[in-house]
Amino acid sequence: MFMPVGTKGCLKGLAVQELVTDPALSCPIILGNTYHLAIQPGTELVDEMGGLHAFQAQPYNLLTDSGGFQMVSLVKLSKITEEGVSFQNPFQKHTNADDVSSMLLLRPEDSIRHQNNIGANIIMALDDVVSSVMEDEARFVTATHRTLRWYDRCVAAHAKADTQNLFPIVQGGLDIALGGKREQCLAGFRHRAVTQGYCIPGYAIGGLAGGESKDDFWRVVDHCCRALPDDKPRYLMGVGYPLDLVVCTALGCDLYDCVYPTRTARFGVALVPGRHPGTLRLKAHECASDTGPIQDGCGCQACREGISRARLHLLLKTNNPLAAELVTQHNIAYMMTLVRDMRNSILRNEFAAFASNFVQQQFPGERQGGDECPAWVKNALEAAGVGLLK
């Protein structure tokens, strides 16, 4: 399942009902950002209005992150201690880096309180997030064990365990050695489930998609998936490139989120089947006189109504907001179709053929016995027992 990212609980330019009522989208769950919702409009107000579902008349499911990712994305505005993380309000100007007058303190207890107020169906434990490309080994050690300690505090603070599913997040950097930091974090969660009776409905894999090599990326995903239980969903955070979804599904992941499909749509880039990277730049000169739709057979509004690439090109060039809405709809439809097709192929026991065909569509030279496909893709699929069919 792919979850579009709605930072404040909704997607830019789309009515919330479209995600459910438009059969081409049929999006059962989206992601909201706890940090941004806590700043504006404030989660106490959201709670008073009956939770985010009621506040924004949202009929679909919600997942909220813990706010931990902002430790990386807003690193210059944050300070991390054992107590929690303090953020400067990014919407206010600061002349002094030590100014605490408008700081938001996000402790594990605060993160859970905010997420209880928001009322999402799936909520995340606050984790200590470190950029995967950082070279400070001691910082990774601290983050790994702090993530476990913060998880204990999140469990203790969780007031709505009967209605909200709390996922812990596996950290540990790129260290997948026997007894390494990823294994220590995984073992810590297993120990808590067995000895303390923690109910863990699902697990997230964090700390990736931050600039590490693709070879390191897939090996960490593979390591975590092999160690996590088969009967619990595995959520790979921050991953949204179609090729990555296919490869990581082969490795054992179930849930994904990323801003990529919606953000790239606002720049006039549509996701389409075909040669890697599988994108169509609608602002390109070639689209100015192209009478075809974005994608033949697509059920999104633009494609089913026959809105041409040339028309979209003009809308984008004139900064008409309708263009971003239509391309956003298309990209979400593309992602929803991709994950549905993957799930159906798994149910039919045909995923290996699906993955092979998808990769060969992106790298057509493979069909002729070439070596076009990146080595990391081949190695990951081989590790998952999914070879490329010639």
UniProtKB/TrEMBL annotation:
Please give the Gene3D superfamilies that the UniProt record associates with this protein.
Queuine tRNA-ribosyltransferase-like (3.20.20.105)
Q: Entry's Pfam families? A: TGT
Q: Which UniProt keywords apply?
A: Glycosyltransferase, Metal-binding, Transferase, tRNA processing, Zinc
State a single Gene Ontology molecular function: tRNA-guanosine(34) queuine transglycosylase activity
Ranges for domain tRNA-guanine(15) transglycosylase-like come to 1-362
Q: Which GO terms describe its biological process?
A: tRNA modification
Q: Does the keyword RNA-binding apply?
A: no
User: Top EC class per UniProt?
Assistant: transferase
State the GO CC annotations.
cytosol
InterPro entries in the record: TGT, TGT-like_sf, tRNA_ribo_trans-like
The EC number(s) attached to this protein equal: 2.4.2.64
Asked if the record carries the keyword Zinc, the reply is: yes
- What is the name of the protein in this document? tRNA-guanosine(34) queuine transglycosylase
